[in-house]
Structure formats: structure tokens, C-alpha cells
């Protein structure tokens, strides 16, 4: 039962990675796991294990991220790599770890919120049981066609600073470049930059490649079309996939067409209100 569980920090080892591979269907090494969860922020990830009678019953990792708002640094953690041993499923192991994490991350690490990108299995638990809030992302597929800027971008919009919460895109770019050497594409225009990775889908036996934009950092509004063109040229793809929440400071530059992934957030410190905007994109995901 959950009451008999001991939740405590653990040091990742091969046995843990074996559990993760079994649950997630991956073939990850210990070094691969550490590279995925240790960012370039200088902050340490938090690894929490749930133990039942001395045996590891479940696990969850929390990746540290730095955000900035009005010149102030904000620390948050991303929930990821959830795993429950099959013998302990249905006993509230996952929920017990997350509830413990809410306390540990706030009190011991100064976190303002927990974020995540849940799958279909964990999403209902996060939202209904653990009181996380949904923030669905808008999605736009930009095709490299004549006059593409006219159809996909709003070139007459200004770059405004509404006191939004901005992810450290340079830090995230360096993290993913280290994890995926030679696979991350970047475009730079002055002090602005955008980056992403090439993905692919096979439709009726034909592989179609596209670049999933991981992040954007704008110094000037007029740099955006040049950055998108730079990503087209660097990746040699015909399509860019862009996703962000409707409160993202750059959201108004794009002509959105559909819904994408869902971001979830748990506010640890009464940090969010209706004025908050989320300047983060899918590149921050552990699985990106």
C-alpha cells in the first residue's frame, strides 16, 4: 500500500536503467540516461525512488530548468521517466512519488513549478488525481512553398515583452546538442536564433522528413522569417513543425492551424496567474 512506501532520493545505476528500459521499451544505457536528465544549467536533477520492503517499486526523474521573468531567475523541474515495477502497479506508487516531489522540489530546491508532457496513460492521473493543469499547445506545419511567409506568418506584428516567462533557450540548445551530437540544426540572425531536429514519418511507404522546431529566441520581430528560412536551408527539409502555448510571447507571429502536444504544470508557490505567459517550446521535453 502507498502508506508502506518509502520515497527517497536515489543514485541511478544499471538496475534502475534496466527497469526503465523494461517499462518504456527502450535500450538506453546508464550514461544515456544521465545525459538525458542532466542539463547544461549547472543544476542537479532529482531522482526519487519508491521502496517497498527495501525493494525498488517505482521511480521518477525531475530535470532542472532555468526560466527568466523580468530579469529574475525562476527554477522549475520537469517530471519524466516514470516507471513502476509490474509487481507494484495499482498501489498508488506513481502518485506517492509525485506528491513527495511537490514537497522536496519546493522546500529543498526552491522550485516554483513542475512541468511535464504526459502520455495517454499518465495524463489522467496527473490532471485528475495530482491536480496538474493542462496547457494545450497550438501547432503549425510550415511548408517550404512560394510565398510561404504570407501564408504562415504575421509579419506586421511587433515584438512585445509582456513580462512573460522565458525558458533559457541557449541552455536547452546546448543540452540537446550534447545529447544528440551532429543532429541539431540551428539558424542565427544577429542576436536571434532558432533550433530544431529532423524527424520523419512514413506514409504509404514514403518517408517524409520535417524539422521539429525545438526553440526560438527573438531579439527583433523581423528576424523570425529569416530564422525559419535558415532552418529550412540547414535541415534541407520541406516542412517545419512549430508548437507553442497560446500565451507564448511569440504566439501572435504565427497563423495556427491545429492542436499539438499538451503541457501540464503544477504550481508549487502560487506563482501563476492569468497574466503569466509560457515562453517554452517542445525542445525542452526529455524525449525531444
SSE blueprint:
Blueprint: E1 6-9, H1 14-24, H2 30-37, E2 46-52, E3 55-69, E4 72-84, H3 93-109, E5 113-116, H4 123-129, E6 133-143, H5 148-152, E7 165-167, H6 169-179, E8 184-189, E9 192-203, E10 206-217, H7 223-235, E11 239-245, E12 258-267, E13 278-279
Parallel strand pairs: 4-5, 7-13, 10-11
Antiparallel strand pairs: 1-2, 2-3, 3-4, 3-7, 5-12, 6-11, 6-12, 8-9, 9-10
Tell me what you see in this structure.
The chain has 288 residues and is α+β, with helices and mostly antiparallel strands. It is built from 7 helices and 13 strands. Strands 1, 2, 3, 4, 5, 6, 7, 8, 9, 10, 11, 12 and 13 form a 13-stranded mixed β-sheet that branches. Strand 4 (72-84), helix 3 (93-109) and strand 5 (113-116) form a beta-alpha-beta unit. The chain is globular, with a radius of gyration of 20 Å. The mean pLDDT is 92.
In a nutshell, what does this entry contain?
The chain is an alpha+beta fold and 288 residues long. It has helices at residues 14-24, 30-37, 93-109, 123-129, 148-152, 169-179, 223-235; strands spanning 6-9, 46-52, 55-69, 72-84, 113-116, 133-143, 165-167, 184-189, 192-203, 206-217, 239-245, 258-267, 278-279.
